[in-house]
Amino acid sequence: MMAEKQTPIYDIARSQGAAFVDIGGWLVVDAFGGEQKSIPAMTRDVALLDRSARAKVLVDGAAASAVVERAWDVPHLAVNGGAVHAQGAVYRLRHDRYFLSAPPGLEATLESTTARAMRQEDGLLTITDVTHGQAELWLLGPAAAELLSRLCGLDFHPASFPNLTARESSVAKTAQLVIRCDAARQRAYAIVGARSLGAYLWQTIIEAAHDLNLLLCGEALLLALESSKERDAGS
Amino acid sequence: MTEAVSADKMRRAAPAGQLIDHERSFIFTFDGKPVTAHPGDTIGSALARAGVQILSRSFKYHRPRGLRCCAGHCPNCLVQVGDEPNVRACLRAAQQDMVVEAQNAWPSLRRDALSLTALGDRFLPVGFYYKTFIRPRALWPAYEWVLRHAAGLGRVNADTAPATYDKQYLHADVAVVGGGPAGLSAALAAAQQGARVLLFDENGELGGHTRYKEIDRTAFGRDWGLEINDMQSPIPNLDIYTNTTVLGYYPHNYLAAVRGNRLFKIRAASVVVATGAYEQPLLFANNDLPGIMLGSGVQRLLHLYGVLPGSTAVVVTVNDDGWQVAHDLWRAGATVSAVVDLRSAAPTSQAAAFKEALEGAGARVFLDSTIVAAAGKGAVQEAIIAARGVRGGPTDGGSTRLPCDLIAVSGGWAAANELLYEAGAQIAYHESQGEFLPHALPPGIYAAGRVTGSHSLQSQIKEGREAGSAAAAYCATGKVQENFAHAGERREESAPSVEQDAHHSAIVTDGNGYENVRQGKRFVCFCEDVTDKDVRTAIAEGYRSIELLKRYSTISMGPCQGKMCSVNAILLCAHANGWSVAETGTTTARPPAKPVSLGVLAGQQMEPVKVTPVHDWHRQHGARMMVAGIWLRPEHYGDPTAEVQAVRQRVGLIDVSTLGKFRLTGPDAPQLLERLYVNRWQKLSPGRVRYGLMCNDEGVVLDDGVTACLEPQEYYMTTTSSGAEAVYEWIQWWAQSGWGDGVHVTPVSDVYAAFNLAGPQSRAVLSRLTPDDLSNDHFPYMHVRQMQIAGVPCRVLRIGFTGELSYEIHCPAGYGQFLWEALLEAGADHGISPFGVEAQRILRLEKAHIIVGQDTDALSDPFAAGLAWAVKLDKPAFLGRRSLARVSEQGPALRLAGFKMENGAPPPAEGLQIVQPEGDGALQIIGHVTSSRYSPTLQEAIGLCWLPAAMVVDGQPFTIRLDDGRLVQARVHEGAFYDPKGEKLRT
Ligand code: FES
Ligand code: FES
Description:
Chain A is of the alpha+beta class.
């Protein structure tokens, strides 16, 4: 029997009709069914995705900034700022803490590339793979900010919370990292927090969206949306 | 001769109402009778159109009450809609098939038996609840029963299905409260300057009083926003929230607002308060009769809903507004039989034109006159007016009785300044205006429009623009513009205006001495049924200060929160005391400014709950889940005794993913461990595991767990499940206070799932899934190994809480369910059983292991808890050392001890007292039971308890007092009950 990894939403998603695909050894929601027809709705309203399988690494230490910049060739970031690179994205959470994010299965790459950039004079630096420990739920679409503002006191106006912003805050009474990570030319927010609270947060978001057209969706729809956007851009 | 006006003559062709779709209609019921309504109607407007005059009964005397303000500012229209009590009929949109019922009336609204209380009003004087129903004491239950049934408004149905409520956070540079001319102008001006603006208005449309007053819209240009309701495209930077009531102002420009079932929490850099003003009633006998309305209420019905509330009207006014009301009524088809102006001079400008038109239509005009009383049975039938005398009351020259079915009262305005009070504005009484107006505003707070006493449209728009610009500038610069620092200073003081004088006199006259007038109650507070006589009585009894008067009389403490009575109460109080209004002062405004349901305040139900990676498996396999702190854990899978036996005899598997887990890295990690724990750490070598006991700086046991040394500079610490977050905060506190150099502490509790495989056959089961050597020589007790189990990378600690050979397996959480199932499958031949928290509690009790927080409390030190062996007082500074050194010298007064029940008695409940009989037969409490269970292994009841240290001697008998008072015997048992030498777990 091959060892397979499950996200904290796996059981709920299965009970909600999800079909799964293997990405990086994880069982990831591919689709909840009938979503292809939902692309127009998704671009109007808001979609909820479980992206907990994404690679997540914390880098702690006084020299975290220098090491991350060297490792990933990203500009110097202010606290709460972020930048994308070829493998994923980096976010500066504190002066001495970075959060690295990448598609599923790349956590070892995140760790090793960062570790290779360390120099003797950098002092103590701790690189921790927290992929398994954190749920990552995405809200995507025009109503994503409104839905999130029902659960979180941060100001999500683009002027205050532009793309690639990352802030730690309370979401639905739990500690979470909220990241603006637009995708497929849609406003998107990743909510990253304790794995054990993932199922609670998933259900709470669904309840909070009681009067919004919330679409549960998987990676397939996101891919479809991205490719339709690319087609739009090309035509 | 008095001529009563019958109800059926009252209705006539209604003017068009701007909100009403006359083309369509539907039916709802009021007290079981069908009522026709149109889209756009409120319950109140539809009832008024249908000729229903009585909507409610008053709180104390159960007097009939009808529409008064049509704006949510009075208590008169509270009704029950379905299961929802205290709905304001004048605000709630009518809906098809809605079931509306009158409340506070029995058996019916028209004939309410409790209205007989008015006959006994002598026995219900002001403050009666402080004076009556006290003696004889024995009768209090009966009084209480009656009072509880008579008191309160509406009916709560506890079986109502919960509604959906939620909250939303909003942010702005400028929040504007009030969408009238001033608020609209402010919002537009601020938005035009680039500020992010939120505009809130409690009505469905913007425009404030311009919605129901005829104004010359072209005179003011387009840029103040009156056309905003018709605008198709959004205004950049401006978000508008209609039907949204701002309930309160909290520090740092935090506003709470409600729309439907949603509570908004709003943060703004600056706030413009443009909340307008409340029109005020006047005092006269029977001033609460249905058919007596505020002038603005009449205008709302006419212009918004197309309802003419009466056919024959008398209008009483202290200002020019009343003349417009009278003119509107006449134009809508009513007969205006008289306009009574309390001012002596004839009105000027536009009001003069109204007067001319009204006189031309046959209306009688009474200047320098007042209304003395209203009369009528169930509704107003006549107004009694008289000329004003020297003190403002009527002269002795007699009164005039005017038949009517509507009395419209324009009694002046009171600024809606609650939010300004809450924001810390200085509010002062302006003699010239006769209003309490903002005098000085805190930085970032602005006021505009009627709330500052500006009653002309031009000045409202101008003030709004200025306030909006200043608020936007404040956001940009953080500086207060000079001319907005003190709103009130721009106002010139002058002698009281004629309007003010008129309003004053109408309130303070004592109402006696009119010819031909049968006296009636003159209500100051309609919500609480407090009359002017009550106010005078209270003041005579010594409640002279306005704050005391409020509390004693309950004036201004009703559903309208004083909007209809505060000002009049202050005027009366000032007059009765012989004080000026400024000397009298005001009461304190507190949120919420408008009633709000508890459901709205509660919002969406959110109770965070943590589950382990194996949660779904537990549920699917019959686990009874229990709440353990924030976690859901399996208590047992049906038979905890069988689970204990499986662990003792074969092998069991428990999910301990809930344990706190931390990664400590860096050269100074051992030093931090030394300081955090009372035992020694420096010599813990890679591959070893050690139990750690953590105390606070007072030497009280805080937490315990094990820490494994993985590499020279890497440690893996576990804590109790419930203590994980507190321990992390504790470590951070000390790390950031100077002990954190050279060490990083990273919480990884959720990164790893953890299972304990326990029992004599655990090694055999585990060896099926890993090629690693698990023998005692290669992997002894209190050691840690990295190994692949079923292909999953795991960290395995050879430790256990159960006293059996055990492996605590930590794996990446995503593999949790896979590994759990793999272990159970591998153990199937060995009779493996999952076990839950209950079995674990029994197993650990058999080993006399403590649970921190259950067997210890906020006073327990390690010496008392039997953990003295862990305390190394000879090592350098660690948390709790000073206190523990002292305790070790003195010795503990109480000690935690094991016990067995005597004579086959069942386990006593946890928490029961341990007692010692004294000579006189009394029982002295000497300790208590902390843990107790029946041990399936020992086949007897065992436990842990706190006892005087001197009694902790093996075999010492003691007495436990059961809940029912019976005394049972137990004996101290020293050491573990099971495998006291600990041989099994070292096997
Ligand atoms: S009439 Fe409804 S609150 Fe006054
Ligand atoms: S009239 Fe409402 S509290 Fe007095």
